[in-house]
Q: What sequence folds into this?
């Protein structure tokens, strides 16, 4: 009975904490890619314990890859984000960013 009373309160607290992340830029580690989006976690998230960061436009990412995202929305337990585009990528019309460096010029 006590658990049943506390779980809704905990969900409200979690949702409020995640809403405070809106607009923040995060570096995340991609865990899974499916149906055009990626599931990732930040350095503050433990796998299989904490919520995930859902990357709406992360379908081209690869598990194990780092990506920079901006948090756009949240649920009770998860963040929803989109990829941050680098200046050169914005000009090219792509939004993918990864933890990899571009090859040297001329290659």
A:
């Amino acid at each position: 009975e006590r658990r049943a009373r506390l779980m809704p309160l905990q969900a409200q607290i979690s949702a409020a904490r995640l809403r405070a992340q809106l607009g923040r830029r995060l570096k995340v580690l991609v865990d899974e890619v499916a149906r055009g989006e990626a599931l990732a976690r930040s350095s503050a998230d433990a796998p299989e314990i904490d919520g995930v960061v859902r990357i709406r436009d992360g379908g081209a990412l690869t598990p194990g890859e780092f990506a920079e995202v901006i948090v756009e929305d949240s649920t009770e337990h998860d963040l929803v984000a989109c990829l941050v585009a680098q200046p050169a990528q914005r000009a090219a019309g792509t939004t993918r960013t990864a933890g990899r460096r571009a090859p040297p010029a001329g290659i």
About this structure: Residues 94-104 have pLDDT under 50 and may be disordered.
